[in-house]
């Protein structure tokens, strides 16, 4: 995945030709003239996105001439351009030297605009070198300078570059926040190059979250905008990103088509970082197509460039790519060498995604070499890293959705403000016309006063009518905006509920897994015992993953159209799955869990919602039951239109006061019979889910005599019944 790195606004071809003409005319007059030097620097800056070699040539010429006449602004501006081109071509040492000299000159001359731009480029260079704290330090200094100057374009560039660093660190939510800030300003100012760059960067974050369809939407917008600006670097970047999406979706032929376009542009511009990155992607494509010779050729090219120019991020990914290729070929000896190097660099980078990929390939290598104990340790490390990534995945997706909603709201507000300005402008024009007409009537004389008065009266009435219509439109827009704000508030309430359910329902399985892994860590079980426990561990992981998938699927249905997710299903299938998953937990407390649901009963609702309700009722029954108690789940057809599902226990029961508060809001959850804790939101959430499925839920209970939860859901309509209705 490649982020767009353009930091200067593009100009059109006509403007570039004009600069070249001005430079040529200035040269004829006096090569040491400061105007000529400034034009050389402007030409160097505007050549960067299409031809970095031209940037280097004109900037070096500018520095040479500026030193002859001791023109400090020309020296500093020229050094910034040479440094920019140098680190783009991989010469970081020379770039650092030029940047430091330019910074010293800008500080001595109090040129804060130049200093802010120089800090921004330094931050981008150190990001490529994986020195993230140093990169953020420079970029935040640049942002403060730009905010004081009030330059929207520079502020946009700062937000975008800070987002790039947070993306490199793996902090996707922070990266997305800064990208949307940058995109909003770019859209407000209609800055096409920055709009394109930020659409691409947002797409990269969505790609990292595996939201591939949404990522492709942003990439296609970015590609269209970049093509309109003739930005070859941007076009190549987006083509590579689309190719990587195709690679992730295992569509290798399409991926190669896009990556070939990207690599040609990178070669033409001598973009070392871009070439290394695309070569690695092509190597992985051919490795998966089992074309080992081509795969090795591209991966070696990628590694040579990354190591020569110290591009640490690309080097780590390419080493892992070599390990992947050799693992696919079954050459585990060579795979081990590259996997170990890749893991060491991944640890240096600290990025969870890179580290998890390195651990996975090393695990496959060690297993292939027969080193099963070491392979298992790497598998545990990979699972821990993936758990760390997956634990953030739901929050990242929610953050992404909320940020997109906020961005859409800001866009709507911006459009409304522009519309109001246009209305005021039209009103101003009408008023000016009215004044002119009155002045004309005075010149014409008293004879035409009565006629003019009548005509102006009619015009005023038309204006008042227009104003009333426009005011009505503004009020309607305000109402629409209030509706959007209410939707945002509802989404925030939904988010709080979901977080509560996650904390409530994931605590038990995760605690079980933590206890098992503690036994493994203490070496208190034998290898044979470990092998016997692995199926149970995998079952726990599968169930936990299924729970997250179910919940995330339901979240999507809430954000779009809940009714469309309703389908016919057998009640027995859902109840049996949940009962089996909690049998072990019930047995640990000495509780008997009985599934008495008939096999033939079919309901019509959202099965994922009903699964969440049944799971919550079972866990609550276990929580408030003692040893030798019984929990029974039953189902019966109540009438022609609904099924009745009951979860009954012989536990400690509830008082009338507790029953009255149960479905009315968040309650102070009591601890269970083994001091289990809860969120207090479970029953309110269950009520919401059942009612969305066109059902009802209620409870009967007495202290010491157990509790019975009951709810209804619609009966599935048979095919014969549908035909009769039709």
From TrEMBL:
TPR repeat residue numbers: 156-189, 196-229, 236-269
Organism domain of life: Bacteria
Chain segments annotated as transmembrane: 434-454
Regions annotated as coiled coil: none
Alphabetical keyword list: Kinase, Membrane, Phosphoprotein, TPR repeat, Transferase, Transmembrane, Transmembrane helix, Two-component regulatory system
GO molecular function, one term: phosphorelay sensor kinase activity
PANTHER family: HISTIDINE KINASE, TWO-COMPONENT HISTIDINE KINASE
Protein name: histidine kinase
Species of origin: Mucilaginibacter frigoritolerans
